[in-house]
Request: fold
Amino acid sequence: MFWHDKKVALRIVDDPSGANFNPAMHPDYRVVEVTCDQLRDPEAMDSIADELAALLGQPPIERTPEWIAKNRALHAQLFAGL
Reply:
Protein backbone atom coordinates (compact mmCIF):
# COMPACT_ATOMS: atom_id res chain seq x y z
CA MET A 1 0.00 0.00 0.00
CA PHE A 2 1.40 3.35 -1.00
CA TRP A 3 0.67 7.01 -0.38
CA HIS A 4 2.74 8.52 -3.16
CA ASP A 5 1.82 12.11 -2.31
CA LYS A 6 3.23 11.61 1.22
CA LYS A 7 6.04 9.26 0.15
CA VAL A 8 4.90 6.61 2.62
CA ALA A 9 4.61 2.88 2.00
CA LEU A 10 3.29 -0.04 4.01
CA ARG A 11 5.25 -3.21 3.22
CA ILE A 12 4.08 -6.63 4.38
CA VAL A 13 7.41 -8.41 4.47
CA ASP A 14 6.18 -12.01 4.60
CA ASP A 15 3.21 -11.89 2.18
CA PRO A 16 4.25 -13.58 -1.07
CA SER A 17 0.99 -12.54 -2.77
CA GLY A 18 1.35 -8.87 -1.86
CA ALA A 19 2.82 -6.13 -3.97
CA ASN A 20 6.52 -5.99 -3.30
CA PHE A 21 7.77 -2.50 -2.51
CA ASN A 22 11.40 -2.08 -3.42
CA PRO A 23 12.91 0.57 -1.10
CA ALA A 24 15.95 0.86 -3.37
CA MET A 25 13.71 2.21 -6.12
CA HIS A 26 12.14 4.75 -3.74
CA PRO A 27 14.92 5.82 -1.35
CA ASP A 28 13.01 8.93 -0.29
CA TYR A 29 9.98 6.97 0.96
CA ARG A 30 9.35 6.22 4.59
CA VAL A 31 8.46 2.55 4.82
CA VAL A 32 6.49 0.85 7.59
CA GLU A 33 7.38 -2.84 7.49
CA VAL A 34 4.93 -5.26 9.07
CA THR A 35 4.33 -9.00 9.14
CA CYS A 36 1.16 -10.98 8.51
CA ASP A 37 1.14 -11.91 12.22
CA GLN A 38 1.08 -8.23 13.15
CA LEU A 39 -1.89 -7.67 10.86
CA ARG A 40 -3.75 -10.55 12.52
CA ASP A 41 -3.26 -8.97 15.97
CA PRO A 42 -5.73 -6.14 16.70
CA GLU A 43 -3.41 -4.44 19.20
CA ALA A 44 -0.51 -4.55 16.76
CA MET A 45 -2.80 -3.11 14.10
CA ASP A 46 -3.53 -0.20 16.43
CA SER A 47 0.20 0.52 16.67
CA ILE A 48 0.58 0.28 12.90
CA ALA A 49 -2.34 2.66 12.41
CA ASP A 50 -0.79 5.15 14.82
CA GLU A 51 2.56 4.98 13.05
CA LEU A 52 0.96 5.45 9.63
CA ALA A 53 -1.19 8.34 10.88
CA ALA A 54 1.90 10.12 12.18
CA LEU A 55 3.79 9.61 8.92
CA LEU A 56 0.78 10.83 6.94
CA GLY A 57 0.37 13.91 9.11
CA GLN A 58 -2.94 12.78 10.57
CA PRO A 59 -4.00 12.85 14.22
CA PRO A 60 -4.18 9.48 15.97
CA ILE A 61 -7.55 7.77 16.04
CA GLU A 62 -9.60 8.44 19.14
CA ARG A 63 -10.22 4.95 20.48
CA THR A 64 -13.50 5.19 22.33
CA PRO A 65 -14.97 1.99 23.82
CA GLU A 66 -17.56 1.96 21.01
CA TRP A 67 -14.86 2.37 18.34
CA ILE A 68 -12.76 -0.40 19.88
CA ALA A 69 -15.71 -2.81 19.99
CA LYS A 70 -16.65 -2.13 16.36
CA ASN A 71 -13.04 -2.27 15.21
CA ARG A 72 -12.44 -5.60 16.94
CA ALA A 73 -15.63 -7.05 15.44
CA LEU A 74 -14.60 -5.93 11.95
CA HIS A 75 -11.09 -7.28 12.46
CA ALA A 76 -12.49 -10.65 13.56
CA GLN A 77 -14.67 -10.84 10.43
CA LEU A 78 -11.84 -9.87 8.11
CA PHE A 79 -9.39 -12.37 9.58
CA ALA A 80 -11.77 -15.25 10.30
CA GLY A 81 -10.20 -18.47 9.11
CA LEU A 82 -6.75 -17.02 8.38
The radius of gyration is 14 Å.
